[in-house]
Amino acid sequence: MKTYEKRKFKYDTKDTPGLVFREIKRKADRYFAMNHIPRHGNGFLVVKVVVLVAIMALSYVGILYSHSFIQLFLSYTIFGWSGLVMGINLGHDAAHHCVTGNKKADKLIFSLVFGIQGLSTWIWQLRHNGSHHIFPNVYEADTDLEITPLIYLDKHQEMHWYHHYQHLYAPFLYMFFSLGWIFFADFMFYSEKKHANITVYKFPAIEYVKLVVVKIIYIAVYLAIPIMILPLSIPVILTAFFLMHFCVSLFLTFTFFISHHVTEVPYIETRPENLSVPDSWTAHQINTTIDFNPDSKFANFIFGGFNIHIAHHLFPEVSHVHYPKLTRIIKETLEEHNLPWYKSFSFFDGVRSHLIHLRNIVRDADVNSEEERQHTLAHS
User: Fold this and answer.
1) pTM here?
2) Residue 194: helix, strand or coil by DSSP?
3) What b-and-e string marks burial along 140-153, b requiring 16 or more CB atoms within 10 Å of the CB?
4) Beta strands 194-195 and 10-13: pairing type?
């Protein structure tokens, strides 16, 4: 029996009529070959990992030696944030097998980095690599459009009355994202068979064991050990823990959402007769993705390629440490072909654009609904 099966969505073509991707890839191949650079991680990634591990270790010591709520909250927040940044930089690369060049080693790194944060790896990688990366912003083919029924992202989703206020309550809701992911979403994913374009027939038994183990380890590291060691009360420790999640979650959700779910990018519906995306793979990946602060060295250090995300969607098998150069190649090639596809903004402009999108998508649905009602009345 098959473990899972993917629904047969497809693109009209791989490349554009002008063969833009072939030219981008040729330039990228030449860059790696001429400079004798491997496509996986390099010394810069090692430095980032060492720095982040040191920050995590020191902040965890800070948690265990806290004697006040402020010290505990700051230590928790730095520990949680550095763990998240480790996941974005190292774990995400490992999920795409581009840290060491060895798939087994990268799989182990991926499991460890995500596991220490209490996250399941098997279903996340299946949904991310097998759905979102292939069909970003495509209705019924992108699992990232199924985050929560409380957020209405695409006109094809079911809209409810409360979505009229989503641009107001979204930041508050996003504060609970990491808690929801760790303590609810992971278990929900293992109880569901349908994940956008993927149908899971059977979850490997070992993955259920891993799921339980990572949750136990997470609770032990983040809560049980501090509760046993610290002289502070349980309510104080829990308050610091929850506030840490609120801060980390806002950073996490906006980092994720502003790459795809903003006013500057489209949402696509496939042709119903053959489930094909009405565009080339190349054009779709670029047009449904947007960069933020692409020229900032600080952003490139922190966000692990999420800020130069177009390069990641065109070259997911390449480590994010190479994305600044690849981004320059992409922009240069698009300009040569007179294609105004490349888009970027600042992080905070992205946050603003995301919230405007949440407001506008509901307003547009209301207008379309009213037009349909008037049309029905006129022909009744």
Assistant:
1) 0.92
2) strand
3) bbbbbbbbeeebbb
4) unpaired
**Packed helices 103-115 and 205-219: angle between N→C axes, nearest 10 degrees:** 40
Q: Note whether residue 325 is domain-resident.
A: yes
Residue type, 373: R
What are the C-alpha distances in Å from 304 to residues 65, 84, 170, 291, 353?
31, 11, 25, 12, 21
Q: What's the average model confidence in pLDDT over 280-296?
A: 96
Residue 332 lies in a domain: yes
Highest mean pLDDT among 125-134, 144-153, 346-355: 346-355
Domains in the chain, number: 1
**Contact, 320 vs 93, CB < 8 A?**
yes
Per the domain annotation, does 378 fall within a domain? no
User: Domain span at residue 102?
Assistant: 4-373
For residue 3, what pLDDT is reported?
Answer: 87
Report the SS3 class of residue 271: strand
Beta strand extents in the chain (DSSP E only):
4-6, 10-13, 194-195, 198-200, 276-280, 291-292, 344-345
> Is 379 contained in some domain?
no
Share of the chain above pLDDT 70, in %: 97
Q: Are 39 and 317 in contact (CB under 8 A)?
A: yes
- Please give the structure tokens belonging to residue 15: 């490349």
Nearest-5° Cα angle at 368, 342 to 163: 80
Predicted confidence (pLDDT) per residue in 233-244, tens digit? 999 999 999 999
